[in-house]
Amino acid sequence: MGQLSRELRQLTRRYRVSTLLERLGISQLRDTAHTQLKSLRKAKNMKRKARDRTKKTLAFTTNP
């Protein structure tokens, strides 16, 4: 996840200094990296929430 964030920041910097023609390609790369980062964050959050939900369920069943 950190690598994707770094890549997205680098692409943003390159986008600012690039020409109009290069911006088209860089914007597509940025969109792809952003989509991957979003899906990775979502998966990570879902996994964390499932783990927390399991902990709460276990705590309730051991001591209702």
Automatic annotation (TrEMBL):
Please list the residue ranges that the record marks as compositionally biased, kind Basic residues.
39-56
Which residue stretches belong to region Disordered?
Answer: 39-64
This protein's source sits in the domain of life called: Eukaryota
**Name of this chain's protein:** Uncharacterized protein
